[in-house]
């Protein structure tokens, strides 16, 4: 992370955009390009240190294609500056400044740029919305306001999407999103011939915690555990709250042996933390690696059975 005062974090997290939303966004960039009479209007997405063309206007001579990617950091792209600064960028004519000499956009002669950052509800960057042209343009205030309103509309869509897939207590993904995301992850694993393992986690004796300390403290325990879990696990691991004190983690590109090792490290981490002066918790974890061709229900049933074995054996352990 850059420590300059005017530079913000480029931390992001992955969120799947449904097809109906993609169609809405496509109509937005097409409208922008048509009204502004520019060669290209884009929605760019930041992910895993790269920035890619997520939506591109259907305009004549638009050189940007869906899926085109560049490394974000030190790329020289206009969008890199937007993300770093976290605010609007207007470049009327980049050819008049040496600053943009190494900008990959210049290979398309895109000397003019207007862009805004797009943020997710938690403040992370989704990417940018921008327009580019091969002619100098300062753009009117009305055009800047219009672009900002389109950015705000996209962020509203993202906010509604976020609410629909997020557990409001812990901030993790919810049960509704699990089936959608898990289906996509196993298709990806199958296509890339990679492994994927699921963990099912349960806080031991959670009912007793609620009965002894009250439901408010029980909620605090759930939130604290969710924070511990997400801070400890790897960036590519995807966490969900199923409900109550049950959580599930999808671990892409991870064998059962590696997953069990990670799970046991997490178990030991939780065991060593004092949640309150008078309260410590332990967790039980079940693990199962997805078998090629296996249904989601079958896979999750095996994870559930592994967890049950651990609970039946006394808890505070990992079983597969």
TrEMBL record:
InterPro entries: Diguanylate_Cyclase, GAF-like_dom_sf, GGDEF_dom, Nucleotide_cyclase, Rev_trsase/Diguanyl_cyclase. It comes from the Bacteria. It comes from Clostridium tyrobutyricum DIVETGP. PROSITE patterns: GGDEF. This is GAF domain protein. Gene3D superfamilies: 3.30.450.40, 3.30.70.270. GO terms for molecular function: diguanylate cyclase activity. Residues 194-320 form the GGDEF domain. CDD domains: GGDEF.
